[in-house]
Amino acid sequence: MGQLKLSGVTKRFGKAEVIHPTDLVIEEGEFVVFVGPSGCGKSTMLRMIAGLEEISAGTIEIDGRVVNNLAPVERGISMVFQSYALYPHMSVYENIAFPLRVARTPQAEVETRVRRAAEVLKLQERLKHRPGALSGGQRQRVAIGRAIVREPQVFLFDEPLSNLDAALRAEMRVELSRLHGQLKNTMIYVTHDQIEAMTMADKIVVLRDGNIEQVGTPLELYHKPRNRFVAGFIGNPT
Ligand code: ADP
Ligand code: MG
């Protein structure tokens, strides 16, 4: 579960076409990284996949089912944003449980799922704390916990580490890779950081001005960039 297929997906804001017709297949369980400069359409792509932004043309399929008209919660997708807001007056436990409360999940199930998420994210010892008592990395993990507690088939991450310092970013990169190894969900991860792309991705999608320039494994893009733009972006000077 968790195969994603985009066919002719297009986004216009008024007269401006910011995502040109795009085809892309992401296989179940893949860790795919979208890279590209600021303004190239990474967030818009994610938001369309999540159902937070209407698409202007084309179809999005999840496991062979067209989801164009499905609300975000009906798509089996969770998204983690760059700036995440935790509820300061709630415990870590309640912050993670929040999406399940909204979905009126039975109490016993909430308990099980929050404990499972906390274990994966190594937050077991922090469940009773308020967010204010946590480090930046722990707070970011709580935000991720809130996404994984719904146990979605597809996770979307929009530059989730860009507010963290370099040491924490490195640590979180390792943790996210481990998380993917454990959960085996399909993950799409947006970054403008080449190192993140090269170290985390099964497959990299390079975007430029609303077009996909190239799709490939980190090694393919490094050794056979289609053009100078891709080469430059992937960090290969040749
Ligand atoms: P990225 O995430 O790669 O930085 P975005 O997806 O945020 O890029 O933006 C892609 C393009 O779409 C940009 O030119 C941006 O200005 C434009 N854009 C994004 N959201 C809107 C909006 N709500 N209305 C108008 N233009 C938008
Ligand atoms: Mg963005």
Automatic annotation (TrEMBL):
Gene Ontology molecular functions: ABC-type maltose transporter activity; ATP binding; ATP hydrolysis activity
EC number: 3.6.3.19
Gene Ontology CC, one term: maltose transport complex
Keywords, comma-separated and alphabetical: ATP-binding, Cell inner membrane, Cell membrane, Hydrolase, Membrane, Nucleotide-binding, Transport
Domain ABC transporter: 4-234
Recorded family membership: Belongs to the ABC transporter superfamily.
Record protein name field: Carbohydrate ABC transporter ATP-binding protein, CUT1 family
Annotated organism of origin: Wenxinia marina DSM 24838
Residues of the full protein shown: 1 to 238 of 371
